[in-house]
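Appendix B, Record 12. Input sequence as logged:
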Amino acid sequence: MPSLYDHVGGDEVLHRVEAAFYDKALSDPVLKTLFTERLPQHVDHLTWFTAESFGGPDRFTRELGFEYIIAVHRGLRITDEQRERFVEVYMQTFEEAGLLENEEFRTAVYEHVAFGSRVAQQNSHATSDSELHPIREVPRWSWAGDD
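Logged structural output:
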């Protein structure tokens, strides 16, 4: 089977989806307190992270490193409502892009964003390194049911 990255259509498609998601997050009543301003590289960073998670190039790790994603979430104190809304808007954006017709892909995207949102939430409340989620590298997702 192709990687999730290849299935979705690579960087160009992911960049479009991440840009649409970012636009939604900036104006969403629940998320706009986390996404307070348009940062010029944010869409690129989101694209790199998702691409690497989906089996694409390891650009996020090479260019930024996993410590970067830990640092950007620290101190945000993400609420359950914000975490749940993040997942909802992310899935909605993939759906609107016509990318969730394959049920196994839909499941993989959901598991990816649900897991990532829980890690981000935990890290956003950490007051010490020992309270951070133990993951220290970009997780790799595959098709639902794959080992």
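The chain is about 60% helix and 0% strand.
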